[in-house]
């Protein structure tokens, strides 16, 4: 894209949809980065800013000021009415994160937002989301039949409340539904990946690269799996399954763990499997494997024992099988995971020691 084209092209409009549950990091991070596209890089390199290429607007339902998470003040540029009734529509909407506890009910929390998003989608506006923002898209019915992502901790919530959505808990940025006008990003820091995508789409490859250099933006090529932790809320409505969950949490390393749980529950194998999956979102063997891998991850983070010893400690006698399963679930080999997180642990320990009073 040439400079003359940049100087004359129509600015694309990006609407950032926010609420009282939105984090300031996502909202203002996106706003700060997107508003500088085309302007800041030439200022840093040549000493003179150029034209901003994106028109970025913070939007909420009524356009009135509010405070987002942490009581941070927000003064929206527009309300929904500013993009209705024949008025100019945005090119894209970003549904910022809208925090909800993993034990809460996500449905019917944002009826006005859902209605407006359906209108925008029907009008051909690109819809995107960051983290829990995809729950709003799901509640609007816009993700039905789609593959989508959000923070890995919402896996069970999607399974329970939005079964028509194929939830990808590993993806940092999901483009599987972009031909249907929808792009979703994972955990909150994945707004970097979404911003890079939007800049490349509306301003071109060169501006995306230049902006990444300015802000030291990075992608999350490994996805979310290396960071994901198994969520294990106890289901109290099914006492037999709850008892098995509590038991297997302390006995995941035993031989034939699924058979032991079935015997403990007093249920038939098929009935147990059906009730276990309905309760936890996992098949019994997947649940056991997830527990074992989670324990192995914690061992790898803090222990220098050989991988085979850690595999045996969590219930796998065959080190090769353990390595294959670990790579499939985590996205890294055990050795690569150990290197990544022991390096982080060493850095954190150094920083902690440096701040101690002498």
UniProtKB/TrEMBL annotation:
<dbReference type="GO" id="GO:0043565">
    <property type="term" value="F:sequence-specific DNA binding"/>
</dbReference>
<keyword id="KW-0805">Transcription regulation</keyword>
<keyword id="KW-0238">DNA-binding</keyword>
<dbReference type="InterPro" id="IPR018060">
    <property type="entry name" value="HTH_AraC"/>
</dbReference>
<protein>
    <submittedName>
        <fullName>Helix-turn-helix domain-containing protein</fullName>
    </submittedName>
</protein>
<dbReference type="InterPro" id="IPR002818">
    <property type="entry name" value="DJ-1/PfpI"/>
</dbReference>
<dbReference type="Pfam" id="PF12833">
    <property type="entry name" value="HTH_18"/>
</dbReference>
<feature type="domain" description="HTH araC/xylS-type">
    <location>
        <begin position="242"/>
        <end position="340"/>
    </location>
</feature>
<dbReference type="InterPro" id="IPR052158">
    <property type="entry name" value="INH-QAR"/>
</dbReference>
<dbReference type="InterPro" id="IPR029062">
    <property type="entry name" value="Class_I_gatase-like"/>
</dbReference>
<dbReference type="InterPro" id="IPR009057">
    <property type="entry name" value="Homeodomain-like_sf"/>
</dbReference>
<dbReference type="GO" id="GO:0003700">
    <property type="term" value="F:DNA-binding transcription factor activity"/>
</dbReference>
<dbReference type="InterPro" id="IPR020449">
    <property type="entry name" value="Tscrpt_reg_AraC-type_HTH"/>
</dbReference>
<dbReference type="InterPro" id="IPR018062">
    <property type="entry name" value="HTH_AraC-typ_CS"/>
</dbReference>
<dbReference type="Pfam" id="PF01965">
    <property type="entry name" value="DJ-1_PfpI"/>
</dbReference>
<keyword id="KW-0804">Transcription</keyword>
């Amino acid at each position: 894209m040439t400079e003359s084209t940049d100087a004359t092209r129509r600015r694309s409009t990006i609407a950032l949809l926010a609420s009282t549950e939105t984090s300031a990091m996502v909202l203002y991070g996106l706003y700060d980065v997107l508003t500088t596209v085309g302007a800041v890089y030439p200022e840093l390199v040549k000493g003179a800013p150029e034209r901003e290429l994106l028109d970025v607007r913070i939007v909420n339902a009524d356009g009135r000021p509010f405070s987002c998470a942490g009581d941070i003040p927000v003064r929206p540029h527009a309300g929904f009415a500013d993009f209705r009734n024949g008025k100019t529509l945005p090119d894209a909407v970003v549904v910022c994160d809208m925090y909800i506890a993993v034990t809460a009910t996500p449905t019917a929390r944002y009826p006005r937002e859902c209605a407006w998003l359906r209108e925008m989608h029907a009008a051909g506006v690109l819809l995107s989301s960051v983290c829990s923002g995809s729950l709003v898209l799901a509640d609007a019915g816009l993700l039905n039949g789609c593959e989508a992502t959000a923070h890995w901790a919402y896996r069970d919530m999607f399974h329970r409340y939005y079964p028509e959505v194929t939830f990808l808990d590993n993806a940092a940025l999901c483009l599987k539904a972009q031909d249907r006008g929808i792009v979703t990003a994972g955990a909150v820091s994945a707004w970097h990946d979404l911003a890079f995508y939007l800049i490349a789409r509306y301003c071109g490859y060169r501006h995306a690269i230049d902006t990444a250099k300015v802000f030291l933006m990075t992608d999350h090529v490994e996805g979310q799996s290396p960071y994901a932790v198994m969520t294990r809320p106890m289901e109290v409505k099914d006492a037999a399954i709850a008892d098995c969950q509590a038991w297997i949490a302390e006995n995941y390393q035993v031989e034939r763990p699924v058979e032991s749980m079935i015997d403990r529950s007093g249920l038939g194998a098929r009935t147990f499997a059906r009730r276990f999956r309905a309760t936890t979102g996992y098949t019994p063997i997947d649940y056991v494997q997830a527990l074992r891998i989670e324990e192995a991850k914690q061992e790898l983070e803090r222990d220098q024992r050989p991988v085979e010893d850690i595999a045996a400690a969590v219930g796998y006698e065959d080190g090769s099988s353990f390595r294959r399963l670990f790579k499939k679930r985590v996205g890294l080999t055990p050795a690569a995971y150990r290197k990544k997180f022991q390096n982080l642990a060493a850095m954190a320990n150094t920083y902690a020691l440096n701040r101690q009073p002498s």
